[in-house]
């Protein structure tokens, strides 16, 4: 990817923004053989982790694994730059296990840039989008502030928090979408001129402190998993140096200090108009809303190998700088802490996502796609998932091929996009496992089995990776078949059952039935297996494959029930609603239902059923009218 001074006159796809959404969008489009231009304010800011240098977490880790299985880059970059890895929620069922990494901020950005620089068919222009050109309902090109005009068949906007970004610390405000970087002006106004509805959201970041000024003897050490679990299917082993994280807590003195600044808080005085993330509140919001709590978790997370900068997770704030500093010094281990940079809040424009199709193409302008925080989401992972899907669908549209629209039972990415469109959002949207009704099927460990064949069909997954998946599926099937057909004698298994406090058996029992017991794992059965052929032996000796075998058999009944529910749901998805269907003509719809249907314009009965405010009676009426037509 050359950094061009003068771009070509025409590209298939133009992507605006070099953040996590933009990276996935431009790589997907160019790898699908579309000439692609990335327009970003600064090449040095590509892949910059504006807030916490961490990837994954509860449900977010599922998104990263899915991005990787479709052929995206986030998982590979996270593995390459990770300094600390944890698999979260392992005390619970496998549906909610979630990988998370802490990453070296500079290494992550550099790895992302290197991927773009080496990508054929991708150019980069350091510039600012000024104008979007349309002809009728179609996007035809863009103009930049630097004076360049470029024709394109598809435009993907991934501007993050930069649209009219305004940063707040105490009573001080300054323009900018991120510390040390200017905001982007004019794009929002042009989109509003085209008929789009805009809104305002807020996010924030905590202060950064000096590692050498922390008294590590007074905080709890949190070691990394060792060995770590990689995000990417291409990473066979992570050999990075692992760094510990640290845990401490606020206290009543901290809370009293923070309250002293409430009268100068832009959050409480009304200077901030945008709505912030409910599930990741600022420290002042937590102290205000949970006044009965004596303490809150504070995670101290180093930002890399060659830096003393520490991210104070759990202390996001826009209070005055001197209040932040005083409050930090009241926390155990931080009594002599040095603050490198204060926290701040940033307000930015977004465009409520009911204005999108499930391809992430806008309903108003063909060829125009939105991805990331412009759609009201929060988080690198949510942005990257949207960027990947927008880039794929932009390329498919240019090539006049059918779009890629995943179902809710196929991916968390699909749950996110469907939620955004059907429910829209008036606060930053964050992914949780609880949002997925089929989360037992949408585990982080089986993302490749769900999605890799789709990525392969798009040309985003290599022949080698797809061949490995085929072999893996064959071994899983072989292992399951063996356990279903093989039995074990009481004398062989009862000692293990006794040790696990499980009921003993008095006659031979199928291995598959024993595996369904809550305290029995496949590792308990391997020592007592009857003779197996080499391929079946390979299935049980491979941790990744044996885990899949165990989950498939242990949760067989639950999985079968979910598959039945999905089969019924698909029938409703196949009941299509014509694009020109006039909901206003159906007088027997409820008033709220009619307004919501007119706003969202669902393309199927299944989608209509998931729209807030549309009742079961509305669905019955709508179905009858469709059948008449």
Helix and strand arrangement:
Layout: E1 10-16, H1 20-31, E2 36-40, E3 54-56, H2 60-70, H3 74-81, E4 82-88, E5 98-103, H4 105-117, E6 122-126, E7 129-135, E8 138-144, E9 149-157, E10 166-169, E11 172-175, H5 187-193, E12 199-205, E13 208-210, E14 220-222, E15 245-249, H6 252-260, H7 283-289, E16 297-302, E17 309-313, H8 321-328, E18 339-341, E19 344-350, E20 368-370, H9 380-398, H10 412-423, H11 447-457, H12 463-485, E21 487-488, H13 490-499, E22 509-510, H14 511-515, H15 522-525, H16 534-541, H17 543-554, H18 556-573, H19 591-600, H20 605-609, H21 616-628
Parallel strand pairs: 1-2, 1-9, 2-6, 9-20
Antiparallel strand pairs: 3-5, 4-5, 7-8, 8-9, 10-11, 10-19, 12-19, 13-17, 13-18, 14-15, 15-16, 16-17, 21-22
Helix pairs in contact: 1-9, 2-9, 2-11, 3-4, 6-8, 11-12, 12-16, 12-17
Describe this structure in words.
This protein is an alpha+beta fold and 629 residues long. Among the domains are: 208-346, Elongation Factor Tu (Ef-tu), domain 3, CATH 2.40.30; 463-559, tRNA uridine 5-carboxymethylaminomethyl modification enzyme MnmG/GidA (Arc Repressor Mutant, subunit A, Orthogonal Bundle), CATH 1.10.10; 574-628, DNA polymerase, domain 1 (Orthogonal Bundle). Helices cover 36% and strands 17% of the residues. The strands form five sheets. Strands 1, 2, 6, 7, 8, 9 and 20 form a seven-stranded mixed sheet that branches. It has a six-stranded antiparallel sheet with strand order 14-15-16-17-13-18, with no helix packed on it. A four-stranded antiparallel sheet has the order 11-10-19-12, with no helix packed on it. The longest helix has 23 residues, at 463-485.
């Amino acid at each position: 990817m050359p950094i061009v001074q003068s771009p070509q006159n025409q590209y298939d796809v133009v992507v605006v923004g070099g953040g996590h959404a933009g990276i996935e969008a431009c790589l997907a489009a160019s790898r699908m053989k579309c000439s692609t231009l990335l327009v970003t304010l600064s090449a040095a800011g590509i892949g910059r982790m504006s807030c916490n240098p961490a990837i994954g977490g509860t449900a977010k880790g599922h998104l990263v694994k899915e991005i990787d299985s479709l052929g995206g880059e986030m998982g590979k970059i996270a593995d390459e730059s990770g300094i600390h890895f944890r698999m979260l929620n392992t005390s619970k069922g496998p549906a909610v296990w979630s990988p998370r990494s802490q990453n070296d901020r500079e290494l992550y950005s550099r790895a992302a840039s290197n991927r773009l620089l080496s990508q054929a068919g991708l150019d980069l222009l350091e510039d600012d989008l000024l104008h979007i050109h349309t002809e009728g309902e179609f996007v035809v090109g863009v103009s930049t502030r630097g004076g360049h005009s470029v024709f394109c068949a598809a435009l993907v906007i991934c501007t993050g928090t930069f649209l009219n970004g305004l940063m707040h610390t105490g009573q001080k405000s300054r323009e900018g979408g991120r510390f040390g970087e200017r905001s982007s002006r004019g794009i929002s106004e042009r989109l509003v001129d085209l008929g789009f509805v805009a809104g305002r959201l807020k996010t924030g970041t905590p202060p950064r402190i000096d590692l050498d000024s922390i008294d590590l003897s007074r905080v709890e050490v949190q070691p990394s998993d060792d060995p770590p679990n990689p995000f990417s299917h291409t990473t066979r082993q992570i050999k990075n140096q692992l760094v510990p994280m640290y845990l401490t807590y606020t206290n009543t003195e901290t809370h009293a200090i923070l309250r002293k600044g409430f009268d100068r808080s832009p959050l409480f005085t009304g200077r901030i108009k945008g709505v912030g993330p409910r599930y990741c509140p600022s420290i002042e919001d937590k102290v205000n809303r949970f006044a009965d709590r004596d303490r809150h978790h504070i995670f101290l997370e180093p930002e890399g190998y060659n830096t003393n900068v520490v991210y104070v997770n759990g202390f996001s704030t826009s209070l005055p700088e001197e209040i932040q500093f005083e409050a930090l010094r009241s926390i155990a281990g931080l009594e002599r802490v040095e603050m490198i940079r204060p926290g701040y809040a940033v307000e930015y424009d977004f465009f409520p996502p009911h204005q999108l199709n499930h391809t992430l193409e806008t309903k108003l302008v063909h060829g125009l796609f939105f991805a990331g925080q412009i759609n009201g989401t929060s988080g690198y992972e949510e942005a990257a998932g949207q960027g990947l899907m927008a880039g794929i669908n932009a390329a498919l549209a240019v090539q006049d091929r059918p779009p890629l629209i995943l179902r809710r039972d196929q991916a968390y990415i699909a749950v996110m996009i469907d939620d955004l469109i059907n429910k829209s959002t008036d606060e930053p949207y964050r992914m949780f496992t609880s949002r997925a009704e089929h989360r037992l099927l949408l585990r982080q460990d089986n993302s490749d089995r769900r999605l890799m064949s789709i990525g392969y069909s798009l040309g985003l997954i290599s022949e080698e990776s797809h061949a490995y998946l085929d072999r893996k599926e064959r071994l899983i099937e072989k292992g399951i078949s063996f356990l279903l057909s093989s039995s074990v004698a009481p004398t062989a298994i009862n000692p293990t059952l006794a040790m696990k406090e499980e009921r003993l058996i008095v006659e031979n029992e199928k291995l598959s039935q024993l595996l369904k017991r809550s305290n029995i794992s496949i590792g308990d059965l391997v020592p007592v297996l009857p003779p197996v052929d080499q391929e079946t032996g390979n299935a049980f000796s491979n941790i990744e494959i044996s885990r899949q075998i165990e989950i498939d058999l242990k949760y067989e009944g639950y999985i079968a029930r979910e598959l039945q529910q999905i089969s019924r749901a698909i029938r409703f998805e196949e009941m299509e609603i014509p694009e020109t269907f006039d909901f206003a003509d159906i007088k027997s719809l409820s008033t709220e239902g009619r307004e919501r249907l007119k706003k969202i314009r669902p393309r199927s009965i299944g989608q209509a059923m998931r729209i807030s405010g549309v009742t079961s009676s509305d669905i019955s009426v709508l179905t009858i009218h469709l059948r008449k037509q």
